[in-house]
Specification:
The chain has helices spanning 11-20, 26-36, 51-60, 133-147, 166-176, 197-206, 221-227, 230-233, 236-250, 268-277, 303-315, 336-341, and strands at residues 4-5, 61-62, 66-73, 80-86, 91-99, 102-106, 110-112, 127-130, 151-156, 189-193, 211-215, 255-260, 284-289, 319-322. With 347 residues, it is an alpha/beta fold. The protein has a ten-stranded mixed β-sheet with strand order 3-4-5-6-9-10-11-12-13-14, with helices on one face. Bound molecules: S-adenosyl-L-homocysteine. S-adenosyl-L-homocysteine binds next to strand 10 and strand 12.
Length: 347
């Protein structure tokens, strides 16, 4: 019989499970604390539970494992990149970055990705499978344990499309922010999407405190459809209208990611079109010189081009920052380490 993944259960679900198993409800709180506050990797460690219950749990439940397969530390800024391995041998990446306000961890939500963005290394091998809540939590807990640092923010910007793994990501966020767990406020969480409009509406209904980030990367449908196939399903006007609804409903400002690719989306005319598209959204734009991926033929925009682009946005009163590059010596861009490990090469 397949064992139940107990670490993926939210507290209410674990309570229901305990009751169903004829256990008192308070056992759920104890088990949850062991898993999510004390980081127990086995039932054996749960010393406040009776030995017989520990044995029973280990027969019917599992605590999914996660191991560090590779770890790279940047000599420039201390950024750490982890390649994690799960029980079935699948691997994903997380990146731990130090900022002035603390440590931020960028996590993966799927093994691979099926969104097909042309500039992204994570999608080259397609989607293998989605991650469970326990696996995403494992990325966070393991990075904290290995580095000895308190993780103060989490960004869902690693491999995968979080809104393509909606229910698991929601459960992950509920457990992550639970006061009986590590209690990380969703105000310190960002979720990045390539623009799955149905997912944005579903997320809106949850009224979460997190920051929604949209990977826009283009000022019009022609360029966006060329670089991001998702745009054929959800064109820009539909996406931006969902963003307006989201902002209106939740009162939370949306961030837009814009990776600048030389000669593709970085001209002054592109910047002006973008300003018109973002009107009324009180948007924040994050400009990122694109990371070259060997399999794809594109270059990052020059520093002057990036500055010029930023200036045009600012002239239109759109808040625009150029993302500081961290871990440039360890291939910190998402998807590249996993590719290398599987025998591919990227730069
Ligand atoms: N699927 C989600 C989250 C994962 S990608 C999304 O699309 O938002 C995280 C971010 O990295 C996205 O903004 C993505 O567009 C960007 N990205 C992917 N490849 C990149 C590259 N080569 N250079 C710069 N940014 C890249």
């Amino acid at each position: 019989m397949k064992k139940v993944d107990i670490k993926s259960m939210t507290l209410p679900r674990l309570e229901a499970y305990c009751i169903q198993q004829g256990l008192p409800k308070f056992r759920a709180g104890q088990i949850f604390g062991w898993l999510h506050q004390k980081g127990a990797a086995s039932f054996e460690e749960m010393s406040s539970l009776p030995a017989e219950l520990r044995k029973r749990l280990s027969e019917s439940c599992e605590i999914p494992s996660i191991a560090i397969r590779r770890k790279l530390v940047s000599k420039i800024d201390g950024t750490i990149k982890y390649l994690y391995e799960f029980a079935d041998g699948q691997t994903v990446e997380s990146v731990l970055m130090q900022y002035r306000h603390g440590y931020s961890l960028c996590i993966s939500t799927q093994v691979g990705c099926r969104m097909g963005c042309r500039f992204c290394a994570s999608t080259l091998l397609g989607l293998e499978r989605s991650l469970t809540p326990a696996e995403m939590l494992g990325e966070v807990y393991m990075a904290g344990k290995d580095s000895g640092q308190k993780i103060s923010s989490v960004v869902l910007m690693g491999i995968g499309e979080p809104l393509d793994n909606f229910e698991n990501v929601m459960d992950f966020l509920e457990i992550l922010s639970s006061p009986q767990g590590i209690n990380l406020s969703l105000r310190h969480v960002s979720l990045s999407t390539c623009g799955l409009v149905d997912g944005i509406y579903r997320l809106m209904e949850r009224k979460l405190q997190l920051t929604l980030s949209i990977s826009l990367h283009a000022p019009n449908d022609e360029i966006r459809s060329r670089t991001m196939p998702v745009n054929n399903k959800y064109p820009m006007d539909e996406l931006l209208s969902a963003c307006r609804d989201y902002f209106r409903q939740t009162g939370r400002r949306i961030s837009f990611e814009y990776a600048l690719i030389e000669g593709v989306n970085d001209t002054p005319s592109c910047a002006q079109q973008l300003c018109r598209k973002l009107e009324g959204l009180s948007a924040h734009v994050n400009l990122i010189p694109v990371n070259p991926v060997k399999e794809r033929n594109f270059q990052r925009s020059s520093r002057e081009r990036v500055r010029q682009f930023q200036k045009i946005l600012e002239q239109h009163h759109i808040n625009a920052t150029v993302r500081r590059e961290l871990g440039s010596d360890i291939n910190a861009a998402c998807g590249q380490l996993r590719r290398d490990d599987k025998g591919g090469k990227s730069c």
